[in-house]
Amino acid sequence: MFDNLSRGLDKAWDMVRKDGKLTADNIKGPMREIRRALLEADVSLPLVRQFVKKVEESALGVKVVKGVRPDQQLVKVVNDELVSLMGGEKQDLNEPRLGPQVILLAGLQGVGKTTAAGKLALHLQKKMKKKVLMVATDVYRPAAIDQLVKLGSMIKVPVFEMGTDADPADIAAKGLEKAKKEKFDAVIVDTSGRLQIDSDMMTELQQVKEAVSPTDVLLAVDAMTGQEAAGVVKAFNDSAELTGAILTKMDGDSRGGAALSVKAISGKPIKFVGTGEKLEALEPFYPDRTASRILGMGDVLTLVEKAEEAAKQNDTEYMMKRLMQNKFDFNDFLNQYKMMNSMGTMGQVMKMIPGFNQITDKQTAAAEKSMARYEVMISSMTKQERADPELLALNISRRRRIARGSGNKEKDVSELMGVYTGMRGQFKRLAKMMQSGGMGGMQG
Ligand code: GDP
Which residues does UniProt call coiled coil (predicted)? Predict the structure, then answer.
């Protein structure tokens, strides 16, 4: 569905391929192409303006990195801004603290809401191994209830209904009661769809919501409606706070405007996308994968990331900034260690650090050995863990997994945590001193 957008953006890269670096002058052309491509993808003008401005600022701010051409750099900048536009990280469904997970599903008629209810039910049942109940509250259309019952029977998920004479909030409450009594793990409440947003529908949605205190309130919107979909999410969110959206019909020939706009316009993330009529056709929404699909340049992104990472290793300014922002993570820890190694033996470097200048060669050798062990442990971590060491501080099962994965004991991982924390503290003090005027205080 992003074909046109991808082609439009390709023109932008072409314009700076032969240049030495990105400049205020030579990015004018590419910015025009990006703007045009996004408008053609049905992204609203204010949003396009905002996006192009951010890309421009980032593009001019990037440092020239060895081995990376300006067009590749621009691809990376646009990729990062696209990911952030679409909400950054993938957003999962909320888990309940107590009792069953309750998902309230809303949407205008015809967008694929009922189908989405069946898809979600199947997803929770099959992938999350949950016992699922669906609840039909669309009392205005008997056909809607029948449709849900039919979907339920296809995937062997029971459907609770009370016909068309009951009150929607009451049906929802009774459905939840049944779920609690019969130990269901998840309940999907299908609400009534209307042709247009009207105040009756919103009131009803609020009442149903109050009756079941859902863990998620999701709105199904049709990707084919482009930026309008984002507006609908915003309108629903304004009157009955949502936790996210399901973007349906992503397999169709829509131009991409909905996927790009929902988060930015409504503030709510897309949690799932529907990619076909079959009940299996539901996928979690990944902003990063979607962005690289739009750009179609996975290997360029990897190249730029690697080159930037390599450049960062020797960039003290970057390290200072990380430290001041309290972002010194395991990647930095490892980089610092590697840098020390490349500067000679660790001992020589450590001797230059105050407090370490009494260090003996024996101690140095031991430190080098430990560091090799730490490196193995760090490579057993997930990307997230490396970027956010706090994840380990709070989670024994993660530490256990890392210990096992790297052939170490839990206490070794704890030791690594201790050393990491110590190094972070040391570097941070160092960074503060350097910021507040030279290294004079270092020996004190
Ligand atoms: P509702 O009125 O919102 O409940 O919409 P339905 O669930 O009845 O779906 C309306 C139509 O859209 C049906 O023909 C569905 O098969 C179709 N549909 C729903 N989701 C998708 C999707 O992700 N892709 C495609 N291609 N069709 C879909």
Answer: none
